[in-house]
Amino acid sequence: MTMRDPPAAGRVRAERRGRSAETLAAAFLRAKGYRILARRFRVPVGEVDLVAKRGRTLAFVEVKARRTGDAGLEAISPQGRARIARAAEAYLARYPAAAALTLRFDVIVVAPWRLPRHLVGAFGAGGAL
What we know:
Layout lengths: L6 H25 L3 E9 L2 E9 L2 E9 L3 H6 L3 H17 L7 E9 L6 E7 L6
Parallel strand pairs: 3-4
Antiparallel strand pairs: 1-2, 2-3, 4-5
């Protein structure tokens, strides 16, 4: 955002960058054999960027677009992890058969000019890294 851009313009650019990163992450997961069950699963208590299944594993995936991979992981605050966990609980309440699968919380970091970085089991249901 430049000094002349209104705050809304920066927000629109960030939203566009985030959607693009989610699309890239979904394609990356598909190439790894995952099936995308939901994108931007939103409920009043939180949001999960991607819900993906491979075999008997269901992954709730947070996607971060950052300049570096480490910055992407650091961008997920404890409150953010808790919101993702609450949204995952809502997903399981809506789709109870999914609870029989092995559940996992992953992070995919999308950085410019790099392959996406998939951090499998990045944090637990309680939000701890």
